[in-house]
Amino acid sequence: YTPVEVEEIYEVVRSRLFEDLGDIQEHRAVAEEYFSLYQKLGEDVPSECKEVSYRERIVRAFPFHPETIDILFERWATFPTFQRTRGALRLLAEIVADLYKREHTAPLIQPAHINLANSAIRREFIKHIGNEFEGVIASDIDGPTAKAPKIDREMGTEYSKFRIATGLARSIFFYSFSGGERKG
What we know:
Blueprint: H1 6-17, H2 24-41, H3 52-61, H4 66-74, H5 84-101, H6 119-129, H7 132-141, H8 147-154, H9 157-160, H10 164-175
Helix pairs in contact: 1-5, 2-3, 5-6, 8-10
């Protein structure tokens, strides 16, 4: 009955959601690419992302970006209704299933990839933050007439395929909540 520690959660998530994650050398190669990118971005990324230990966190969290799991455990787990490990596993399972169905090919699952248009995923969030945010998601982030996808379409075909505005909106949403007095 001892709660799972943050450092252990990566392995718990991986072992519960995946039978086989492939070659560890591929995980290391992905981590190296991200780490190299973070080094090049300099001051545009938090300093912790440029530390060698962060590269190892990426390897341990693979196929998730560490922030995806960390935000669930550090922010969303502060909601009294969110069961830290079970809640995270349930949500991550829905996210993985959605990405698999959509044949998503990103090397790591990041907050930007959380498809809030998927009703099962959206419901997992809404039940903790309140139904009033259903309209926010539909009008701003991931609805048929939402602003973020509209911006993506207006950027033109060269950029729209990357869904930058939608990814940013999803990431901001995911990071914006905690069980404190202020939410959203």
